[in-house]
């Protein structure tokens, strides 16, 4: 079974090309539409000052600042608890008016790309744009997922990468001694169930439940059956924000879920998870994570651009996620790298 073996070659570079595809559009928007680096070249500005001047929403501005740091255009310095951002020499030389090496005209021809235009609205409103290439009437990805055809197409796309990432997650949990301690896993927002299936396939005594809403719940049932894992993995049809969670699971898994949501929504999910878990139960948050300063690594920062464009979330620092777990009541969060630029934060209900 493919869920119990890894490929002989590493597909990370292929994941990075797809995941980072919108970064150039966000950069182009900042350069051409807003003259961001030209403005920043003459001052050290706080996030609040940046938001006020450009009338930007915080979530997309946060992603732009992470991207700008990762590619060497902005530096952040914190003093007395206040963080200020300034342009680097590269930004001042190559992205400011009056510089003999100004490359802003080079980017002008790209400013009308559809995604670059989308980012103007995303930065100003904080609301996601329509999923690229989707022609339905839904406002964004979240609405599109209620469409049977779009849900089937999108879930299949996430399922194929999960074959590799799911096995890698299982191997990490086994290596760190967690997998053998897990008996019944609730895979919340689990999509096709590929991650629940990967854990079950690599721990024959483990049972798993995939919590998904329609129409993805039916897609998950079919994929679990195709993988021959119906004896170990079942589906619980529910809305993860509204409906009760099963209370008979000792482990909760959120795999590639939190990055679709803003912090208030993440807190709601964590609170619901905490309430449903037994004492000593574990939570696993499996994602692409930024570093502690949210200035990299570059593949994670670039992936955050497509998320902030098309969903209500972004990539979070693993330190940010650990803090959210602690705020919710979980203890002893730990971060472990898995594969494909992904990692997992593991916490416990005391």
Descriptive report:
This protein has 350 residues and is an alpha/beta fold. The protein folds into 2 domains: 12-144, Arc Repressor Mutant, subunit A, CATH 1.10.10; 148-293 and 314-349, Rossmann fold (3-Layer(aba) Sandwich). 45% of the residues lie in helices and 17% in strands. It is built from 15 helices and 10 strands. It has helices at 12-19, 23-33, 36-40, 47-54, 58-70, 89-94, 104-108, 114-125, 141-144, 148-175, 194-201, 216-226, 263-276, 298-310, 318-328; strands at 74-79, 82-87, 184-188, 207-212, 233-237, 251-255, 282-290, 316-317, 330-337, 342-349. Strands 3, 4, 5, 6, 7, 8, 9 and 10 form an 8-stranded mixed β-sheet that branches. Strand 4 (207-212), helix 12 (216-226) and strand 5 form a beta-alpha-beta unit. Helix 5 packs antiparallel against helix 14 and helix 10 (148-175) runs parallel beside helix 11 (194-201). 43% of the residues are buried. The model has no long low-confidence stretch (mean pLDDT 95).
């Amino acid at each position: 079974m493919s869920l119990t073996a890894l490929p002989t070659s590493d597909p990370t570079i292929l994941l990075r090309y797809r995941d980072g595809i919108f970064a150039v559009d966000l950069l182009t928007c900042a350069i051409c539409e807003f003259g961001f680096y030209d403005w920043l070249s003459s001052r050290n500005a706080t996030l609040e000052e940046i938001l006020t001047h450009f009338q930007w929403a915080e979530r997309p501005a946060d992603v732009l600042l992470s991207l700008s740091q990762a590619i060497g255009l902005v530096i952040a310095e914190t003093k007395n608890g206040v963080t200020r951002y300034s342009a680097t020499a590269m930004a001042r030389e190559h992205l400011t008016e009056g510089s003999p090496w100004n490359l802003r005209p080079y980017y002008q021809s790209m400013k009308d790309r559809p995604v670059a235009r989308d980012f103007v609205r995303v930065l100003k409103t904080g609301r996601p744009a329509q999923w690229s290439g989707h022609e339905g009437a839904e406002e964004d990805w979240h609405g599109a997922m209620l469409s049977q055809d779009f849900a089937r197409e999108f879930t299949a796309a996430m399922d194929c990468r999960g074959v590799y990432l799911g096995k890698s997650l299982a191997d990490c949990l086994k290596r760190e001694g967690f997998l053998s301690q897990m008996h019944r896993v609730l895979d919340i927002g689990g999509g096709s169930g590929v991650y629940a299936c990967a854990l079950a396939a690599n721990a024959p005594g483990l049972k798993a439940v995939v919590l998904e809403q329609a129409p993805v719940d039916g897609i998950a049932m079919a994929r679990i059956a195709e993988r021959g894992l119906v004896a170990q993995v079942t589906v619980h049809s529910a809305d993860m924000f509204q409906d009760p969670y099963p209370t008979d699971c000792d482990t909760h898994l959120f795999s590639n879920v939190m990055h679709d949501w803003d912090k208030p929504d993440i807190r709601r999910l964590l609170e619901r998870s905490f309430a449903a878990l037994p004492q000593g139960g574990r939570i696993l948050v499996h994602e692409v994570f930024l570093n502690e300063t949210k200035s990299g690594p570059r593949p994670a920062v670039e992936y955050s651009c497509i998320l902030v464009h098309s969903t209500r979330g972004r990539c979070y620092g693993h330190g940010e996620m650990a803090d959210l777990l602690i705020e919710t009541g979980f203890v002893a969060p730990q971060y472990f790298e898995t594969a494909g630029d992904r990692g997992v934060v593991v916490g416990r209900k005391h």
